[in-house]
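hey so u asked for the seq, here:
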Amino acid sequence: MSISLVVNPTTLKWTDYTEQDKVIDPNDKTEQSAFTAFDWDLPPKTPRGLDGKLALADGLTLTITPIALVKKGVKKSDELLSHEQFHYDVGIIIARVVVKVLEGLTGATISDLDTGTDLIMNRHFIVRSGLIQRRYDLETRHGNNAAYQKAWKKLMKETMARPNSTQMGGWWL
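ran it, structure tokens below
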């Protein structure tokens, strides 16, 4: 089976951001200059039979898109955008793992497939992503600690270069 991954866009620009009077990071409830996360979509399709079980349909597409907010009046610097790009990139590297896990998913019933898909999405996109995102912001102080920012960006670059990565610096994807 084949599930394709579409990331749109792959690189964020300030024009991808929606301006708001106030931007609150939902993780630590602090006001920030910008906030970036990602959304995913995996449209339902009729499952297929596989060795006496059901599997997800061939030809599915998992799509990753940005959730991007910026505070009105903030200086839209390259450094801030780079920090925010990392948050989005977490979704991309995790989506690569999710595609592989979903390709191996089987169940006795459609309900089993739905439950399995929900568990996979939650484990990767919510739990594992959340752990990485919170640690990244904590260590970089939301991009204000240049040394940690550089170290995290290096980890991301290395992980992006390895499409089959299941971890980033010891963090499960």
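Helices lie at 78-103, 110-140, 146-160. The longest helix spans residues 110-140.
lmk if thats what u needed
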